[in-house]
Give the backbone structure.
Amino acid sequence: MALSTAKHGKFYKTSGSGADKVSTKDLADVTASWALDKAEGCKTLLGDPFLGPLVYQLQQMQDEIDYLRTEISSNKNKVSMTLGTSGSTALAGDTALLALGTSGSTALAGDTRLPAFTADDTSVLNTTKSTAITLGNFTTTVSGKTTTYSLPITVTETTVVTGKKGSTTTLTKAGAITLT
C-alpha cells in the first residue's frame, strides 16, 4: 500500500536564498530559547494559555511518530513469513512459506514468478501429507472505472498412506485471490 501525499509543508528552510529561508541568528536564538525552556519541562510554553495546548498536541503527535517509527523499524527488514502456530494448524509454526529476496536489503524483481511452495506433514504414523501451493501470474482487468486485480492460486494436497492398506489420494483446488 502506497503512502498518501503529504498534507504538510516546511515552516522554513535552512538553505537556499528564498524568502522562506530562516536567518542563522533567528534559528540560533529560537534554538537557545527552546533549550532553556525544555530544561525546565517546557514550563513557559505549557504555561502559556495559547501556546500550551499547541505544545501539548505537538507532544502527542511526536509520541505517535515515535511509536510508528518503532513499528516500521521492527518490520522493515523481514524477508520471510510463517503460517501457523502449531503442528495442528495449516502449516507447522516453524514452516517458512517463502523468502522474498536474498537478504534484508533485497527483494524479488516485480516480474519474478513465485515458486511453488510445498509443506510436508509426517505427524501421523504411516501417513505423509504434502501440500503444494502454486501462484499464477498477477493480472489486471479494467471495466469502466473499476480495476480488478487477480492472483490465480492452486492448492494440491497429496496423502500417501503406507503399510498393508497403502493408498495415495490427491485433492486439487484452484481459485483466485481478487483485489479491487
Summary: The two ends are 13 Å apart (CA to CA). The longest strand covers residues 146-161.
